[in-house]
Amino acid sequence: MLSTTRFGGRSETMPFISRLPLDVARPRTRELLRNPQEMKNEVLGAIDSGGGKERFLWRVDVEPGNRLALFAVTERTRPEWGGLWEACGREEEAARLAVRDYEPMLDMLEAGQEYAFKLTASPTYSEPSPRGPGVEPGAEAGAEGEKRQRGTRRPIKSRGEQMNWLVRRSAGAGFRVGEVELPSGFLDEEPQKVPDVLLSGTEVKSFKKAALAKPGAMSTVTIRKVTYTGRLVVEDEKLVRQVLVCGLGSAKAYGAGLMTLARMSR
User: Residue 87 belongs to what H/E stretch?
Assistant: First the structure.
């Protein structure tokens, strides 16, 4: 099913957001959790009419009670999760399997709004290649060790630099990371503001995929992901909308880049 909506006589794609409770006791669930390439293929399989060319995002969240749920955002196609649900779904939570039109939430975005956010990302930088110039540390890249014309992608491992990566990227993504002021005298320093963000859930996964340069050969891909939870302020709603649908950072097909928002509790 392909859904569109119109603005000023122009047809626009309609994104969808999905939530699937996963049963970790099922063998197929454990297989997918071990291999991001396999999970990517399952998400692609659910996009019936996307033809493999549609942009999509996914991530696995740990929820209260150590339960797992798959979240996915598709750019224009309503996914059909029947096959994945049969193999991996947590039957007692069937009522919480949901596929929703993302448009109403995206339409509510306005500059100045404050949201709680969650982002699983793969912070990387590009190491200059001997053959040509590289880019500054913190620039967008992808899987660990992946080579591009501009250099070799490397993971950012330091917690401080991972936080700096998010702050740098936020400026071009239409939001400002919220800040909290440390009290006077904290560590014998003057009062200072720091990002109101918690880094957690560092995860490193290695898996095999077909090598593009050598037909029939396999290469090893390593993805390093970190989860950010915190507070942000919308500065450009159009850019934030783009991030929510298209992701932030690299390795988007492998469970990184999906950001979700929630209203702040009062």
Answer: helix 82-88
What residues form DSSP beta bridges with 107? Answer: none
Rounded to whole angstroms, the Cα distance separating 143 from 222 reads 6
pTM of the complete model: 0.82
Q: CB count, 10 Å around CB of 169? A: 20
| Residues in CB range of 24: below 8 A, 6 or more apart | 30, 33, 68
Q: Is 176 strand, coil or helix?
A: strand
How far is the C-alpha of 203 from the C-alpha of 256, rounded, in Å?
11
- Mark out the alpha helices in the chain (DSSP H runs): 27-34, 36-46, 82-88, 103-107, 159-172, 237-246
CA dist 57 and 66 (Å) reads 22
Strand partners, 216: none
**Bridge partner residues of 12 (DSSP):** 5
CA quadruple 10, 113, 97, 44: dihedral sign: positive
Do the beta carbons of residue 250 and residue 119 sit within 8 Å? no
Q: Is 145 helix (H, G, I), strand (E, B) or coil?
A: coil
User: Which tokens is 125 given?
Assistant: 């930088």
Closest CA to 182 of 172, 168, 170, 196: 196
Could you read off the pLDDT tens digit of each residue along the chain, which spans 266 residues? Answer: 333 333 333 335 689 999 999 999 999 999 999 999 999 999 999 986 555 578 899 999 998 888 999 999 999 899 999 999 999 999 999 999 999 999 999 999 999 999 999 999 999 988 876 655 544 444 444 455 444 455 688 899 999 999 999 999 999 999 999 999 887 665 666 778 899 999 987 899 888 887 666 776 778 889 999 999 999 999 999 999 999 999 999 999 999 999 999 998 76
CB 249 within 8 A of CB 256: yes
